[in-house]
Every structure is written in structure tokens, then in C-alpha cells.
Write a structure and sequence with these properties.
mainly alpha; 2 domains; single chain; Endonuclease III, domain 1; 218 residues; HhH-GPD_domain
């Protein structure tokens, strides 16, 4: 008996994001207020590459601005090609000089080694379902669920990701709802009605969060 062909994972586009934002606004009064005031959120694209994982590593527990400054420096040193080989050639000391912490340099180098050895295939992730992508990412040193969520949302453009470890989402939904959620599970329960468009709803919350602070969205 032949196996049915595997379904290609769905990716968000600017059009499907805008349509999804309207659908969410129709069903959620809080998102409706955001949509009426700010319109559809930006798509927020990143490349599905090793370089994006380095950027994500740099963003762990620091400001977006600080991480981008370090990321831009290393991209400049690598002449725009932030590949596993380029990072491995820089080695720990040069990465530290460019602004990596000891721990983040270790993570970036370990991931470079995994890519060069063929143990982690970044290009293959686009063909896999969300949970398989997540399991492969979190198996790498220094990459947890938040890192997987960011890659799934921004690089693979998956439509139904809820990054419960993301501070802007957590603070944003608490401020919007004027409710102190005590756990990630409570936020997940709150967001249940957003399925299967939780990535779009998250972008809408981010959009409101940064607007309230007078900043550009990531």
C-alpha cells in the first residue's frame, strides 16, 4: 500500500497575514482594537539560514538593539556571508572581541560544528512539520523553545506558533488584557481561540507593544 505524499508546510505571506489579521480581529475584541488602530502587522521575515540562528543566539536575554549591533559587526567581518565555516574560522577569541559572551560564542561554534558535520541541516527544516523542526532545534546546544519559536515564525513563516517564552508577547498580552497571567499555560489558554493563526496574533501583540513604547517593531 503506497504512502500518501507528505503535505508541504504552510507559510505565511503578506496577503495571508493581512487576511488572517482581519479574521482574528473579527473574533477577538482586543485584537480588533489593535487592528483598527494600527492595521495589519508586518510580516517580519528572516532568512532560513545558520546566520539567523546566530542572530537568535545573540538575542537571548539582551535587548534587540544590542543583539543586532553585535550581529551586524560579525556579518561585516564575514563580508556578508555568516556561514558555519566563517564562524568556525573566527573561533572563540575573535567572536568574544566582536561582542559575543563566552556562552554565546560556545553556542554559535557548537552549531557551526553540527552544520559542518552534517548533524544539523538548516536547509531541510523548511520541509518538516512544526514539531519536528522544534525537536531538531532544541537538540542543539543553547537553543530552546524560544529559539525554535522565533525561527519557526520569522524564518519559516509558520502560521500557528505561540512563543510563550517571549517577553514582549507575555508583557504585551498582560497589558492589553489588563490581567496578570500567572503562568504560560494561562496565556496559552487565553490564546486558544487564536488557532490556527497564533503567529499572526503574536505579531499583532508585538505591534501594539512596541507602538506603546514609541519603538519600531524589531
Amino acid at each position: 500500500m503506497s504512502r500518501s505524499p507528505q503535505r508541504k508546510p504552510i507559510r505565511l505571506t503578506q496577503k495571508s497575514l493581512a487576511e488572517g489579521a482581519v479574521r482574528l480581529a473579527e473574533g477577538d475584541p482586543v485584537l480588533r482594537k489593535i487592528h483598527r488602530r494600527l492595521g495589519p502587522p508586518p510580516l517580519l521575515r528572516r532568512s532560513a539560514t545558520y546566520a539567523t540562528f546566530v542572530h537568535i543566539i545573540l538575542e537571548q536575554q539582551v535587548s534587540v538593539e544590542s543583539a543586532k549591533a553585535t550581529f551586524d559587526r560579525v556579518v561585516g567581518i564575514c563580508r556578508g556571508e555568516l556561514s558555519p565555516r566563517a564562524v568556525r574560522d573566527l573561533a572563540d577569541q575573535r567572536l568574544r572581541e566582536l561582542g559575543f559572551s563566552r556562552q554565546k560564542a560556545r553556542y554559535a561554534l557548537a552549531l557551526a560544528d553540527a552544520c559542518l558535520a552534517g548533524d544539523f541541516d538548516v536547509d531541510a527544516l523548511a520541509r518538516l512539520d512544526d514539531e519536528t523542526v522544534r525537536s531538531q532545534i532544541v537538540a542543539q546546544l543553547g537553543l530552546g523553545n524560544w529559539s525554535a519559536d522565533v525561527f519557526l515564525m520569522m524564518a519559516l513563516q509558520r502560521p500557528d506558533i505561540l512563543p510563550l517564552g517571549d517577553l514582549a508577547l507575555v508583557k504585551g498580552i498582560q497589558e492589553i488584557d489588563q490581567t496578570e497571567y500567572e503562568s504560560g499555560q494561562q496565556i496559552a489558554d487565553r490564546a486558544e481561540s487564536w488557532r490556527p493563526l497564533r503567529s499572526i496574533a503574536t505579531r499583532m501583540v508585538w505591534q501594539w507593544y512596541v507602538h506603546q513604547r514609541g519603538r519600531d517593531i524589531f
